[in-house]
Amino acid sequence: MMRYILNNITIGCLLVVYFIFIACTKEEDPASLPPLLSVNEAQEITRTSAVLTGTVKAMGKGEITSLNFRYGTSAADMQMVIECDSSLTQPSATLVGLEPNTTYYYCLEAGNGYSIAQSPSLSFTTFPNQEPVIGNLQILGQGPLSITLQYEITDNGGEPLTETGFYCTEENGEERTYAMSSSQGTVFQYRIGGLKMKTSYTVQAYAINSIGETRSELLQFQTGQVVTTTTAGTLAETIGEEGKYLHTELTIAGPLNGTDIRFLRDMLGRDVEGNETAGQLRSLNLTDVTIHAGGISYDGMYYTKDNCITYGMFSNCPYLQELILPDLATVVEENAFANCPTLTTIHIPAGATEVSPSDNCPLLSSVEVSSANAIFCSVDGVLYNKDCTALYWFPEGKTSGTIVFPDALEEIGNYAFRNYRGVQINLPSTLRKIGTGAFHASYIESMTVPDNVTNLPAGVFQGCSKLRSVILGKGMSNLSSYCFDSCPLEHLYVEVELFPPMCQDDTFGSTNDLFKTCILHVPKGYLNQYRNHDVWGRFEQIVGETSFGE
């Protein structure tokens, strides 16, 4: 019996030991072990910022529940905290708002719900404040007497700027300082005026703070007669009021918009209200200009379009003699140069695809075209298409006697001979088409329209105050409005048989004077067809002809 009792006691003791062992084993569960942490050397250190990185590894079965960097100005007082995503194994944080030239201590801290651990701490020192940093010095615009410059303060060095500006040195060694307000931001622009024409200069931007002064790299330039812009709308600033009315010849390069064209028109002698100015510009070279939409109206009504010489852009300029249009201009609109009394030569660029004539340029004798143009060409100052099958502009200042047309000519464009000073034009038999107002207000006294022309467009002879005799060829089928308005016709020969050409009530003008004064000559066998026509029948004198002539 005693042995039985002792055996039971022994078994009981063993069970107690077993359960104690199990309990001790659970208290040392790996989930309760602290995370393993480390930090790296700080990166991207500046005067006021730095980037911290580190690594974190959960131990046992535990999970990271909190993660952050601690930092401060002493190892014993890292009270500032930046929290991180607790799921990261390689956390990072950017510290900002730091003090320049200051040592900071930092560590990585993590918790897993059981305990909080910290990595060993490291330190870094922010950079001290310094002189300002200046970006590249750029030329925004340049004129014969001025230059407009721009630069950026990319870093103030950690201290407020006390002064900034330019040092400009002339080729003779004379240096001038141009100071600006240092509170206008980080990008600075300045126009240096009063320079000498055709003179070399060097210029430097400078910036000063409490630490010291910084200068940009030297920029060299030479003034000349070319005005250069880099931004549309800055021509007035580039040339300046002091140079506005000094130029008789001018070359411009760079972008221009409506604001620039308005200023340029002032230089050409005409302001936005149509009044004459003190401008005396006679020769204008725009080869390297690009026209841009935008800015204000250049004449109070019209605005610029991209790569377009628009209506009236250079009209009413009292002294302009020669104009070279921009290489990239594609369109020249009607009357872009109207009413320029001294204009003699216009240069059409390589890129032009559309060109319309301008009215009342009495001295214009030559419309020149770049040889690189694929659409147009110039023959003796007259504007044709490339293969000379169409004539688009016969300058009204040309005083040559007999006009010799190309053998292949088939078309005369709209207003092509407007204000022509000659008394007669012998149109070639190859001609098939005549444009609107083609001979408007010309000085011709007689005209024979070839048989291949079937239509007279609106106003084709309108305002021809000396036109006395016209022969319409056998192919004529239609006469549009105002063809002969304000013409003192005495004889009109119509060779068309069978059916009279169609015409409008206003073909012969807004009055009935011409029906009384002009003799209508028609084929003899077709008198009745004309006499019984609603319009042709209004002629009071209709004569049948067996052959035609003046």
Radius of gyration: 44 Å
Q: Unreliable segments (pLDDT under 50, ≥5 consecutive)? A: 1-6, 13-28
The CATH topology of the largest domain is what? Leucine-rich repeat, LRR (right-handed beta-alpha superhelix)
Tell me the fraction of residues in β-strands, as a range: 25-35%
- CATH H-level superfamily title of the largest domain: Ribonuclease Inhibitor
Q: Could you say what the CATH architecture of the largest domain is? A: Alpha-Beta Horseshoe
Structural class: mainly beta
Average pLDDT across residues? 91
Question: Which descriptors would you attach to this protein?
Answer:
550 residues; 6-stranded parallel β-sheet; elongated; 5 domains; mainly beta; 40 strands; Immunoglobulin-like; disordered N terminus
Overall description:
- There is one protein chain.
- By secondary structure, the protein is mainly beta.
- It folds into five domains: 32 residues; 93 residues, Immunoglobulin-like (Sandwich); 92 residues, Immunoglobulins (Immunoglobulin-like, Sandwich); 172 residues, Ribonuclease Inhibitor (Leucine-rich repeat, LRR (right-handed beta-alpha superhelix), Alpha-Beta Horseshoe); 150 residues, Alpha-Beta Horseshoe (Leucine-rich repeat, LRR (right-handed beta-alpha superhelix)), CATH 3.80.10.
- Helices cover 9% and strands 33% of the residues.
- The protein has five helices and 40 strands.
- A hairpin with a 4-residue loop joins strand 15 and strand 16.
- The N terminus is likely disordered.
